[in-house]
Amino acid sequence: MTDVCTWTLWRIASSRLPTRWGMFDAIGFERDISNGTRRVETALAIVMGDLTEGAPLLRLHSQCFTGEVLGSLRCDCHDQLEMAMQAIADEGRGLVIYEYQEGRGIGLMAKLEAYELQDAGLDTVEANHALGFKADCRDFELSAAILRDLGIKRVRLLSNNPRKASALAENGIEVVAQLACEAAPNPHSLAYLRTKKERMGHALSLGTASAPARQEICIRCDLVGWRTTCLACAAMVTTETSSSLSVRHRSNSAIRKHPSRCFESSGQEKRDDFGHVRSSGGRFQ
Fold first, then answer.
1. Which of 26, 121, 156, 171 allows an S-S link to 177, with CB 3.0 to 4.6 Å?
2. In a domain, 283, yes or no
């Protein structure tokens, strides 16, 4: 029997949010999900101006404690958030939807484990796979639901990630333009950004060849630019048999600690391209 996933969106609270870019409104949302067990997901809509006319600027942003709080230079998250806030302030209208999806959805502790593997030579995608995760475990259904709740049907998306645009379109939000939100690389982030460009299809100008306009996704490992069987999958099999990084041990322990939402389906659940259970419907209140 296929599990039915139902959920309800709640608008929890709204307050003024004075920032160095100007006055925003912060609106808190919760998604109450029932799929055999109950869990709650939260997100924050950071809004400026009238969003009901035309297509406002939108940034879908995932929490990055290491970059935004600790000032880590391993990623571009902090700079992208500030660029988006400044762009919205310059235009006088737009919003950031801030989701609690640390490390592309794997959580802070798993993200640190992935960093440890990257320090040992793996790239960000290989590290996720070694820990038992997909390259990107995020689900943007909550963001789309928030946009609908706010009465927004069309957006101009501030993102280098084509999967965000696809996810919004699949959930009924028209992306009339995808605008670059690219931070300058530094010596600590360059390899990470190059991997996002070359293996995950992000539109980044790092001096390497552009990714093809149309790309196919490996059905096993979720990487762009490969066919049904790809070299990355074969490389991971080789890596897992290596004792130098104890990758197989890490992978098994990671699966025990992170048991469900980012892995291949073992039952008859319907899952989307991000590896998540696809809801057969949602309820909004």
1. 156
2. no
